[in-house]
Design a protein that fits this description.
7 helices, 187 residues
């Protein structure tokens, strides 16, 4: 496929700046642009029957993050259920294994069906992060929904130990990775 003209590139830049309020249009535009090396590496890890812990570890390495979770949405329980994790303290595992819609960063991303970001979880006063979440020692974090055509399938969350704001380009890549996970889960 050839790269479209400058108008599509301007649209792409605008899409990044508004954090994808119109997801279907974002996905159409994103197909025209080269995949980043990060996405290529992560997609390679998802070939065949992927080990989701390994996939999460590769995502964390690609974004220089120390903590992360991958949750699958369980309709019957109306909960996000943990598939893979890294860097979560044992005392928080009972809270992370199953997350209700709207609770914490992952639950908020699932409820809103859009990325949720905290520049510094340790000092957050927005109410999105739960008080016990500070025990993770995470600074900057982002969670993105894993969905297919508006159907929630789960969430992907990553975090750094220092305060950090993920760029629109990084958020765009994470949304693409989440979409690729959804495609894999759909079979």
């Amino acid at each position: 496929m050839t790269v479209p003209g400058r108008s599509a590139q301007r649209i792409h830049r605008r899409r990044i700046s508004v954090l994808h309020s119109d997801k279907p249009a974002f996905r159409v535009i994103a197909r025209y642009f080269k995949m980043s090396d990060r996405i290529k590496t992560i997609n390679a890890a998802m070939r065949g029957n992927p080990d989701w812990q390994k996939v999460l570890d590769i995502i964390l390495q690609a974004y220089d993050c120390q903590t992360g979770t991958l949750h699958h949405w369980n309709d019957l329980r109306a909960m996000l259920e943990l598939v893979a994790h890294r860097g979560i303290p044992r005392e928080l595992m009972d809270k992370v294994e199953r997350i209700p819609m709207g609770k914490g960063i992952a639950g908020a991303a699932a409820e809103r069906m859009e990325p949720v970001q905290l520049c510094n979880l340790q000092t957050d006063t927005s109410g999105v992060a739960r008080p016990r979440a500070r025990k993770t020692k995470v600074g900057g974090s982002v969670a993105v929904p894993i969905d297919m055509g508006g159907l929630l399938m789960g969430t992907l969350g990553i975090g750094k130990t220092e305060p950090y704001e993920f760029t629109p380009a990084e958020t765009t890549e994470l949304l693409q990775i989440a979409h690729n996970i959804a495609e894999k889960w759909m079979g």
